[in-house]
Amino acid sequence: MLTRVPDLSLDIDVRDDRKADRDAFIVLMSGTLLLFVFHYWGRPDYYVRSGLIDWVATQAGGTLASHPGVGAYLYWGLSSLLLRTLVPAAIIVWIIRESPRNYGYRIRGTLRHFPAYGLMYLLMFPVLFWASSFESFLSYYPFYDRAAEGGAAFWLYEIGYWFQFVGIEAFFRGFLTFGLARRFGMLGIVIMTVPYTMIHFGKPAPEAFAAIIAGLALGYLALRSRSFVPGVFLHVAVAITMDLLVLWRLGALGNIF
Q1: Distances (CA, A) of 92 to 37, 99, 124
Q2: Residue 12 phi/psi, 5° resolution?
Q3: CA distance 43 to 73
C-alpha cells in the first residue's frame, strides 16, 4: 500500500508491504553490524592498539614517521569511507537491489539546497565561537594532540577527519535515513537520530546534546534535498571551524597558516 507523507512538504513514498518491511530490516540489521565493526576496528584507538601505527610509520616514512599519530586519523577516515559509505552502497545494490541514488547518493540537483545548509552554518557559528571558550572543548579539540604544531601533519589529520564525515553523512543521513523513511516516514529520521546521538557519547555533554538537534535537522534536510552530500560540506565546515577556533584561542593558529 502506498501513502504520502503530507507533513513538512516531504515527497517521500511510505510503503507498507513485505518488501518495505524486508528493506527496513536489512537496513537496521546491517547498520547495527556496521556500527559494531566500526566501533571496534575502525577507530583511531584500534590503529594504535593493533600496532599499525608503528608498521605504517616504518613503511611510509616522511610525515607519517615523524608524526605517527596522524596516521590514526587517516585510518579512521578511510575506515569510515569503507564501512559507512562503500559497504552500505554495496548492500543497496546487491541485497536491496536498488540504486544508491534512492538512498541519497546523488549530487545532481542538490545545489539549490545549499543555502539552507549555509544558513544552518551561520546560525551555528556563534555557538561554536562560544563553545570553543570552554575548557571541555579546548582540551578535546583538535583530536590530534600535535595539531597545534601545524605543517603537513595537521592537514593530513584534517583530511582523515573530513573523510570520516563523508562516512557519517552517507551512513546516517543516507543509508539509515532514506532506508527507514521509506517505511516509517518522518519517524525514520527520529530512529536514525538515536544511534547518531550515541556515537557522540564521550564528547563534551553540550555537543552530545546538540547531536540530537543536528540529527533531526540534517535528516530532514537530506530528505528534502534527496541527498546526504550537502550535509558533508556542512559537517566539514563545522568541524574545521571548531578546530581553528580552539587553535586560535590557544595562540597556535599562526602555525597552521
Answers
A1: 18, 7, 33
A2: -120, 130
A3: 8
Given the C-alpha cell 562560544, which residue does it identify? 130
Per-residue pLDDT tens, the chain, 257 aa: give them: 444 443 445 667 777 678 889 999 999 999 999 999 999 999 999 999 999 999 999 999 899 999 999 999 999 999 999 999 999 999 999 999 999 999 999 999 899 999 999 999 999 999 999 999 999 999 999 999 999 999 999 999 999 999 999 999 999 999 999 999 989 999 999 999 999 999 999 999 999 999 999 999 999 999 999 999 999 999 999 999 999 999 999 999 998 88
60 Cβ partners below 8 Å, 6+ apart? 71
Q: For strand 2-4 and strand 13-15, is the pairing parallel, antiparallel, or unpaired?
A: antiparallel
**Domain ranges within the chain, ordered by starting residue:** 2-101+113-255
